[in-house]
Automatic annotation (TrEMBL):
Residue ranges of every copy of the Carbohydrate kinase FGGY C-terminal domain listed in the record: 244-434
Protein name: Rhamnulokinase
Gene3D superfamilies assigned to the protein according to its UniProt record, in alphabetical order: 3.30.420.40
Domain Carbohydrate kinase FGGY N-terminal: 36-233
Length: 489
């Protein structure tokens, strides 16, 4: 989650500087049968961030929140939070995609939502709650997606921001509005949903209670592209109008910007998503499992008393045997297994491959498999949009993993332009700067990012090494195909 204040320094070339004031971890909590977010802690940490910004001597004109997609809180008619919001990896949605598809038809579901069928999309969470006869659904007055919920706690104003709305599966991008008909067919109430507002809208000011609690003056809270992926996409420092990007973090989101959603059957078949961004643009992108797989291995090793830093893990991977074992990172079994290293080993056994036999070979297997998956999705994106991309922009925290960037350049056989790391925070700030009139449009913002943050270029290996990567990719594709045929994953 990002909370940023902004400062524009007038120099010969205008540059944007960002300063990290506060960072906090965001761990889910298992309570009984369900996995939840620690929503009160997140709110408290946001407030701590605001207080620290003023204490550090800044006089922020505004603040804005962006978070992961799909999750939400429900308010009762007194404006109080009903229960603790579910985490999108909670198991309540298991099997729900199939059920909802059978009920309303999968092609129609795609055409009316533009989204790939990810079990955690809001639509499936709500349907799971309905199946469980959750009383919360009966008494809920308003549904607020996570950034909207936090904005509400800060300002007392209820608002629904457009980019988040498009992650729900209940917003119809073709018609442009909530899909009331679909909600009714699923037995869900449509009166909980607010009319979406565009990124850049001022929601309101901090409440007097929040100001008093923090000892700070009133400040505007702005709805930006509050879906973190869309904030990050808005900060990609591309110089051409058509470009491909990869937002790398817990998830890897690979896509390209489009003037309108692409709702063809080919997009449906390849399971890409159309997600709304700034200025009514859409992004055709795919969710790829991402560094979550590595994060979970690291957590398990830590639990077992073997702690490694990411730098150590990458060093071990660098000297491990290349292209020994590959996995399909998007196999559903990797969504939230209790023991990720064991899940990877069992995947390899199921596919007749050698198991990774060391920490280094495990990390290498994850990174190489991700890199090949990026190539596959990049080529699919080109086919779907009729574009040819000269290389891939990589942004987000994951680009600190230089081995991943280098492997990606080799897998795709094209350059990777990496940077900036804090893309979501920067995209968030750009929309605030536009709202306050410091920049005129997002194009200017993109140029500002290019002038302000260095990009690291990773070139693919020379011609003689290409054959190795091509053979590795062919092996990866064969693995994926046999996986699909056997129904594994
Ligand atoms: C990335 C992200 C993805 C979304 C996933 C779950 O942080 O926002 O875009 O699909 O989290 O919400």
């Amino acid at each position: 989650m990002h909370l940023q204040s902004s400062g524009l320094a007038e120099e010969a070339v205008r540059k944007l500087r960002i300063t990290e004031i506060h960072r906090f971890p965001n761990h889910p909590v298992q309570i009984g049968r369900h996995l939840h977010w620690d929503t009160p802690m997140l709110l408290q940490e946001i407030k701590n961030g605001i207080r620290k910004a003023f204490q550090a001597g800044y006089e922020p004109q505004s603040c804005a929140i962006d978070t992961w997609g799909v999750d939400f809180g429900l308010l009762d008619r007194n404006g109080e939070l009903l229960g603790i919001p579910y985490h999108y990896r909670d198991r309540q949605t298991e099997g729900v995609v199939e059920e909802v598809s059978a009920l309303v038809g999968s092609e129609r579901l795609f055409r009316e939502s533009g989204l790939q069928f990810m079990p955690f999309n809001t639509i499936y969470q709500l349907y799971a709650m309905k199946k469980a006869a959750s009383p919360k659904l009966d008494v809920a007055d308003t549904l607020l997606l996570t950034p909207d919920l936090m904005n509400y706690f800060l300002t007392g104003k209820r608002c629904c921001e457009f980019s988040m709305a498009t992650t729900t599966g209940l917003y119809d991008p073709g018609r442009g509005g909530w899909n009331v008909q679909l909600l009714e067919e699923l037995g869900l109430r449509s009166d909980m949903f607010l009319e979406p507002v565009s990124p850049g809208t001022v929601i309101g000011s901090l409440t007097s209670e929040v100001c008093a609690e923090l000892g700070v003056p009133p400040m505007n809270v702005v709805a930006v592209a509050s879906h973190d992926t869309e904030s990050a996409a808005a900060a990609v420092p591309a110089s051409s109008a058509s470009f491909a990007y990869l937002v790398s973090g817990t998830w890897s989101l690979l896509g390209t910007q489009m003037p309108a959603p692409l709702l063809t059957s080919s997009v449906f078949e390849h399971q890409f998503s159309n997600e709304g961004g700034v200025d009514g643009n859409y992004h055709l992108l795919k969710n790829i499992m991402g560094l979550w797989i590595l994060q979970e291995c690291k957590r398990k090793w830590e639990q077992d008393g073997r702690s490694f830093t990411y730098a150590e893990l990458i060093e071990l991977a660098e000297v491990a045997e290349p292209l020994r074992t590959l996995i399909d990172p998007d196999a559903l079994r990797f969504m939230n297994p209790p023991d990720m290293p064991e899940e990877i080993r069992s995947y390899c056994r199921d596919n007749g491959q050698l198991e990774p036999d060391s920490v280094g070979s495990m990390v290498r297997c994850i990174l190489e498999s991700l890199a090949f998956r990026y190539r596959q999705v990049l080529e699919q994106a080109e086919m779907l949009t009729g574009s040819k991309f000269a290389g891939l922009h990589m942004v987000g925290g994951g680009i600190q993993n230089e081995l991943l960037c280098a492997l990606t350049a080799n897998a795709i056989g094209r350059p990777v332009w990496a940077g900036p790391v804090e893309a979501s925070a920067i995209g968030n700030v750009l929309v605030q700067l536009r709202t306050s009139g410091h920049i005129n449009d997002m194009r200017e913002g993109q140029e500002l990012v290019r002038a302000s943050f260095p990009q690291h270029i990773y070139e693919p290996d020379e011609a003689e090494r290409r054959a190795v990567w091509e053979a590795g990719y062919t092996r990866y594709l064969r693995l994926i195909e046999s996986d699909i045929r056997s129904g594994a994953g």
